[in-house]
């Protein structure tokens, strides 16, 4: 009963928050439709969280949840962003709920809305826009299409996480037809939006699962069940966090860093600029981004932090970034113990994606941050001696 109620509220919240991704959300004539939706989503989340807590037996893990919510409030006060707070409230709501069921709800709700938006946007049946991406040899301007979303890269980013959700639902067993569909949609979105990072990772996914259907299947499965692969999955988030901070700190003056930053489309030059301008703090800072917007031209120099680890470090602070990365790594250790290789593969891909894009904890795009709930519910306190983290099967 409680699990069904929580999944229902999670689905409603996902449906409402999807509105923040569509282009019509930026247009004044549609403001009366879209402006109330974030507030309604917040109310839905709070009501769902209260009902979930009332229907669940109290647990010592509540100390952790309430600490995280308090931290979210503190970060909101400093950075003016409420999103981390809502993530922690969501974690409390979905506590003790099967993570795979949440992924399934997300896949069907977000997948349906994404398909409808892309189709309607492609045929200009809903508001959409184009952005220049370069000049062709004949002098014509090449365009990227937003396909109904509020920026040109968003359709590809949303689809990437839907592919990962599908892998989770199918437990790493993808058919040839599914791989063909993924390849076709990925190519279509790349042609229309010119978004490279998700496209490269999706092609990698298709290649991996094609090899799993080849005579190399048993060889690859030995790799996926190996300690090397397991610890790669567990440690990849701390490693990429360290590399992100290191590269952002040293800047792009050296020859290698200039080439690397060029391959990363200038992301680490901007990250270095962010570190220099705002510095690193415990609880984050209010950061003023200056980006291209569909409702007005760019004013001044472009500034945005695409790298998830750097954006969260500067925006939400050192403590929150440390907690998020620690909890994800512990959650992946649980998955490694449970021999769920496909979950480790999913999060390795998310870690790589987060090196270039900021959607790691954004619930509009992805439900995967909610996996840390499985770690929080293992915490046990033995006052006044020590804190236990109970290691049990992930099943």
Can you describe this structure?
The chain is mostly helical. Helix content is 61%, strand content 5%. It contains 17 helices and four strands. The chain has a two-stranded antiparallel ribbon. The protein has a two-stranded antiparallel ribbon with strand order 3-4. β3 and β4 form a beta hairpin. α1 runs antiparallel to α3, α7 packs antiparallel against α16 and α8 runs antiparallel to α9. The longest helix is centred in the N-terminal third of the chain and has 24 residues. The two termini are 20 Å apart. The mean pLDDT is 91.
Stretches where pLDDT falls below 50 for ≥5 residues?
A: none
Total beta strands? 4
What percentage of amino acids are in beta strands? under 5%
Strand order of the largest sheet: 1-2
Shape by Cα distribution? globular
Largest sheet: 2 strands, antiparallel
Helix content: 55-70%
The mean pLDDT is 91
The radius of gyration over CA amounts to 21 Å
Q: What would you call the structural class? A: mainly alpha
List keywords for this structure.
single chain, 395 residues, mainly alpha, two-stranded antiparallel sheet, 17 helices, 5% strand
Give a short summary of the structure.
By secondary structure, the protein is mainly alpha-helical. It is built from 17 helices and 4 strands. It has helices at 2-17, 31-34, 37-54, 62-79, 83-93, 99-122, 154-169, 176-193, 196-211, 217-224, 227-250, 255-263, 267-278, 308-316, 318-337, 341-354, 373-376, and strands spanning 130-135, 141-145, 379-382, 386-389.
């Amino acid at each position: 009963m409680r699990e069904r109620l929580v999944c229902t509220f999670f689905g409603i919240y996902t449906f409402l928050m999807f509105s923040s991704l569509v282009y019509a959300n930026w247009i004044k004539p549609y403001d009366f439709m879209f402006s109330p939706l974030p507030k309604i989503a917040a109310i839905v989340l709070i009501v769902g969280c209260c009902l979930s807590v009332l229907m669940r037996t109290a647990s010592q893990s509540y100390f952790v949840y309430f600490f995280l919510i308090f931290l979210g409030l503190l970060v909101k006060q400093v950075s003016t962003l409420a999103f981390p707070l809502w993530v922690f409230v969501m974690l409390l709501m979905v506590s003790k709920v099967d993570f795979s069921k949440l992924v399934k709800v997300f896949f069907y709700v977000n997948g349906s809305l994404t398909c409808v938006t892309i189709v309607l946007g492609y045929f200009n049946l809903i508001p959409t826009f184009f952005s220049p991406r370069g000049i062709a040899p004949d002098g014509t301007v090449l365009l990227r299409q937003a396909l109904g979303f509020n920026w040109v890269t968003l359709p590809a980013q949303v689809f990437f996480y839907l592919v990962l959700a599908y892998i989770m639902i199918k437990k790493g067993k993808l058919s040839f037809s599914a791989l063909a569909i993924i390849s076709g949609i990925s190519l279509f979105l790349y042609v229309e939006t010119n978004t490279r990072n998700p496209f490269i990772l999706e092609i990698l996914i298709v290649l991996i699962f094609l090899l799993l259907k080849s005579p190399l299947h048993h060889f690859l499965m030995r790799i996926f069940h190996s300690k090397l692969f397991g610890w790669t999955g567990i440690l990849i988030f701390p490693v990429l966090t360290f590399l992100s901070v290191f590269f952002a700190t040293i800047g792009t003056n050296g020859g290698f860093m200039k080439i690397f930053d060029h391959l990363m489309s200038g992301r680490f030059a901007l990250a270095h600029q962010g570190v220099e301008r705002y510095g690193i703090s415990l609880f984050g800072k209010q950061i003023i981004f200056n980006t291209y917007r569909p409702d007005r031209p760019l004013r001044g120099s472009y500034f945005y932090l695409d790298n998830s680890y750097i954006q969260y470090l500067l925006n939400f602070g050192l403590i929150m970034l440390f907690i998020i990365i620690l909890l994800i790594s512990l959650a992946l250790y649980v998955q490694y113990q449970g021999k769920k290789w496909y979950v480790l593969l999913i999060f390795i891909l998310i870690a790589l994606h987060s090196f270039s894009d900021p959607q790691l904890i954004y619930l509009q795009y992805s439900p995967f941050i909610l996996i840390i709930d499985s770690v929080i519910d293992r915490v046990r306190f033995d006052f006044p001696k020590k804190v236990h983290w109970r290691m049990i099967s992930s099943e």
